[in-house]
Amino acid sequence: MQRIKRTIAVFGVFGLLVGVSGVAFVPVASTRAAEDAGDIQDDIKKTEKQLEAAKKKEAILKQDLSQITGSLVVTKQVIAKTSSLLSDTETTIGKKEAEIEAVESEIRFQRHLLQELLRSLYENGNTPLAEIVFDHESMRLALAEGENILTVQEKISTIADELEVARETVSGEKSVLEEAKIEHERLLRLKSEQEKSLVAAKNETQSDLADQQKIIDRLHKELSELQGDLSKLTGKSYDAKDIRDAVEFASGKTGVPEGVLYGFLKMETNLGANTGQCTYDEVEKGALAQYKALLKKNKKWQASIDLLRKRKGIFSDIVKDLGYSKDKKVSCNPRSYIGQGGAMGIPQFMADVWVGYESEIRARTGHKTPDPWNLTDGVMAMALKLKKAGATSGSSSVIRSASIRYLGTFSPGYYNGIVYWSKNYKLLFK
Questions:
Q1: For the segment 69-78, what is each residue's pLDDT rounded down to a tens digit?
Q2: Cα–Cα nearest to 120, from 132, 111, 110
Q3: DSSP letters of 371-419?
Q4: Could you identify which of 12, 121, 226, 354 might form a hypothetical disulfide with 349, taking C-beta atoms 3.0 to 4.6 angstroms apart as the criterion?
Q5: Is-contact 297 334, C-beta < 8 A?
Q6: Which domains, from first to last, does the chain contain?
Q7: Helices 240-254 and 258-269 meet at what angle, rounded to 10?
Q8: Of 410, 54, 427, nearest to 262 (Cα)?
Q9: What is the C-alpha to C-alpha distance for residues 244 and 55, in angstroms, rounded to an integer?
Q10: CB neighbours of 198 closer than 8 A, spacing ≥ 6?
Q11: H/E element, 170
Q12: Closest Cα to residue 344, out of 368, 317, 362, 366?
């Protein structure tokens, strides 16, 4: 900015120098301006390369984050499934342990029964068999079927043997389940450690991505300021890349579709090529002539006069803060109806409307003093107003509503143009 002010000062002092002989010399200011413009262009190229590299790194980080997030989802699913399997296995092991205990209890009973039978036979050699087995249901049933003592003995032994086999079978099943439990626990530990690592990697990548986005925002800001400096110095209009960068940036910050922004930008200023043809003095003179004539018939027009003067005062403060001349061009007064011009820059905001958006623009672009003629600031202002108008999709109904709120009235030509260019904005750069 200081570089530009110095150049303007040189222009003001020297103007066009003519020698004594009448031969025109090359203005010193022109040479200085060319040098400064060249420096700015070099800085722009350097910043554009940095911005491109930063965006590539951002894309890689986004891809990494997507992969990490996907892996984390899968890992969480495996952990959940493994935890469920482990719980089921532990429950089944508990059931098998209960089965084993029941079988072992039955084995102990049958063996005790056999021991009791043999002991009774030994101690009561002459006692009737019926009395010996009276208290033992299994033996009583066997004898009721006409079986002798040997048969009962064999049956008890067989039952005990079968129960032993059953116990071994269940014990084997329990062993298999315990091995499965160990494997589930091992897998659960492994996946839990993986989850911790993935969470840490995700947090780190998100932090890196946030830092990279800050870098991109800073480079966008620097590039915008450099482009604004060059525009002020040389009067250079915005090129296609500048426009695309500004639209992409504003869309990303507000959620307004790029196509919608292109449509409004085309219809408002022809992509920044036509930001005004009149000075504010000319606007004031023309509008006052109309208002004062109408004021004689209706006092209500005094409010329009007061608003005009208020806006001019705000405009003067804006251009002074930005280092522009008071003769900075704005929109001319309308020809087809009574009204006042004065709309500024890219978004074609009136001065009082612009100051209402300055804090929001500043927060998103990082520019200390937002500039309506700066492409980044201007498109951001447009996007913010469209967001408030509900233009978060490219549907025709949404655009219609947004166009009314943006323009202040419904204009079929204005609306149709926005709809067309919002869908065909790529044609703008062919």
A1: 999 999 999 9
A2: 132
A3: -TTSHHHHHHHHHHHHHHTT--S--HHHHHHHHHHHHSS--HHHHHHHH
A4: 354
A5: no
A6: 1-236 (1.10.287.620), 238-429 (no CATH)
A7: 130
A8: 427
A9: 14
A10: 68, 71, 72, 75
A11: helix 149-234
A12: 317
**How many other CB atoms are there within 10 angstroms of residue 44's CB atom?**
17
Contact 58, 206 (CB under 8 A): no
pLDDT tens readout for residues 161-170: 777 777 777 7
Give the type of residue at 351: A
Measured CA to CA, the distance from residue 123 to residue 71 in angstroms comes to 76
pLDDT at 45: 84
Q: How far apart are CA 417 and CA 425, in angstroms?
A: 11
- Nearest CA among 265, 225, 260 for reference residue 243: 265
Q: What is the model's pTM?
A: 0.54
The confidence band for 123, taking pLDDT boundaries of 50, 70 and 90, is low
What mean pLDDT, rounded, does the chain reach? 80
Give whole-number Cα distances, 308 to 33, 284, 405, in Å: 36, 7, 21
Judge contact between 280 and 330, C-beta under 8 A: yes
Distance CA 129, CA 239 (A): 117
- Rounded to 5 degrees, φ, ψ at 227 are -65, -40
C-alpha closest to that of 303 among 314, 291, 312:
291
Burial class of residue 202, CB neighbours in 10 A (0-12, 13-18, 19+): middle
Distance CA 105, CA 166 (A): 12
